[in-house]
Structure formats: structure tokens, C-alpha cells
């Protein structure tokens, strides 16, 4: 699965664009030209990170970064800037790169800000589970999970759309044949909802199937 980057870049002819080089590396890059457009796309695209080419917009980018963080608190932001427009020290920014630099240096700074890939990343609908870092993202929300919660969510995501019996889930997650009391599972389901659901009391994704178990419903 390609990591998704929301890229904000103006149209100054004298400002270098690194987008082709980043796409060549295999990242899915969506480019917008204003902060307003970025905010409008943030929720629908649910990117893994934002790159702001502030140098191409003759701005420090401070206001744009703060607006993005208000909408998606945990998303990493990399800012491309110049010495004159420096935004160093701003808490809303993860990485600041001052021109000039090479595309290789840019890629080296992008990599650590993104979730794991390959077998370390499970992606179903709006849910992205980073198994290495034990972090999950869902529609702009991000949270860290315990090892047990990570295992539970991984199984639910691997069987998205299927009803999983409570006893079946308990056996897999707790690696035991003892199923005399599965209330611990219910508590863990509640904790997962606190992380991935906008309204945990009225879950959109993690549904209870009364008398049977649980089902993870995600859009195609």
C-alpha cells in the first residue's frame, strides 16, 4: 500500500518542485495549491502526512500548519522553506527543510514520518494499523495501542465485514482455550472504540452483533 501525502505547493516558477521525485519513490502524492484546498481535502484523503512547500507560496506557512493541526492533531507536517521565511521552532511542524537541498535528503526526512509498510501495515477502508509502532489512524484520529489491542484490531481488520464470535476472538487474541469469561474482550473492544470511533457510544465501524460477537464494518 502506498503511503499518502497531501502536498501543498504554489505556482512560483522559481521554486523547485520535488513532487515528481517523491512520486517516483512510490508515494501517492495529491497536490493542492492553497491552504484552503488542503483543509478541504484533509478529511476525505486522510493522508499519512502533509508537505507544505511554503517557499513556493512566499509565506512562512505558520497559519496553514496551525489550521491543519486543529483539524488533524497527530498528522506530521514537513515544511519546505527558505532562511528568510524560516518557521523553525514552531511546535506544529515535525520537520523543516531550508532550500537548497536534494530530493534524496527530502526522501530521507519523509520516510521516518510515515507509518511502516509491507507486512507491518494493515490497511482496510479508513483504518491504517502500523504493527511495528502499534499505532492506528482513522479519519484523522490517531492513537497508540497496547500489544493486545493491536492483535485484536489486526484480526478484526483481516476479517472485515465478517461476524466474529466472541469466543473465537478471545481464543485468537489471548491464545488460550479457556473461554469461561470473555468480559475482558468486551472491555478491550470498548477501548478500541475510544481510539477509532468518533462517537464510541454509537460506533460506526466496530459493531456489536448481539448474542454472537463483533463485526468490523468499513466502506469499500
H-E string = EHEHEHEEHEEEEHEHHEE
What's the helical proportion of residues?
25-40%
**Proportion of residues in β-strands:** 15-25%
Q: Outline the biggest β-sheet.
A: 5 strands, parallel
| Sheet/helix structural class | alpha/beta
The neighbouring-strand order within the major sheet is 2-1-3-4-5
Instruction: Give the averaged pLDDT, no decimals.
Output: 87
Give the oligomer, counting copies of the same chain as homo and different chains as hetero. single chain
CATH H-level name of the largest domain... which superfamily? Response regulator
Total number of strands: 12
Number of domains: 2
Q: Give me the CATH fold name of the largest domain.
A: Rossmann fold
Amino acid at each position: 500500500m502506498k503511503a499518502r501525502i497531501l502536498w501543498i505547493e504554489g505556482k512560483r516558477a522559481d521554486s523547485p518542485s520535488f513532487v515528481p521525485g517523491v512520486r517516483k519513490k512510490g508515494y501517492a502524492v495529491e497536490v493542492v495549491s492553497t491552504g484552503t484546498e488542503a483543509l478541504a481535502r484533509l478529511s476525505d484523503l486522510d493522508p499519512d502526512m502533509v508537505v507544505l512547500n511554503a517557499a513556493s507560496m512566499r509565506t512562512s506557512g505558520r497559519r496553514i500548519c496551525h489550521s491543519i493541526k486543529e483539524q488533524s492533531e497527530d498528522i506530521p507536517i514537513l515544511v519546505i522553506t527558505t532562511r528568510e521565511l524560516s518557521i523553525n521552532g514552531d511546535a506544529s511542524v515535525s520537520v523543516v527543510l531550508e532550500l537548497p537541498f536534494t530530493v534524496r535528503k527530502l526522501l530521507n526526512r519523509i520516510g521516518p514520518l510515515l507509518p511502516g509498510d509491507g507486512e507491518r501495515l494493515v490497511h482496510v477502508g479508513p483504518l491504517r494499523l502500523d504493527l511495528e509502532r502499534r499505532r492506528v489512524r482513522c479519519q484523522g484520529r490517531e492513537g497508540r495501542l497496547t500489544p493486545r489491542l493491536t492483535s485484536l484490531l489486526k484480526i478484526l481488520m483481516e476479517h472485515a465485514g465478517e461476524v466474529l464470535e466472541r469466543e473465537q476472538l478471545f481464543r485468537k487474541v489471548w491464545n488460550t482455550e479457556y473461554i469461561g469469561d470473555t468480559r475482558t474482550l468486551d472491555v478491550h473492544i470498548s477501548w478500541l472504540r475510544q481510539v477509532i470511533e468518533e462517537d464510541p457510544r454509537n460506533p460506526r465501524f466496530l459493531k456489536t452483533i448481539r448474542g454472537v460477537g463483533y463485526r468490523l464494518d468499513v466502506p469499500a
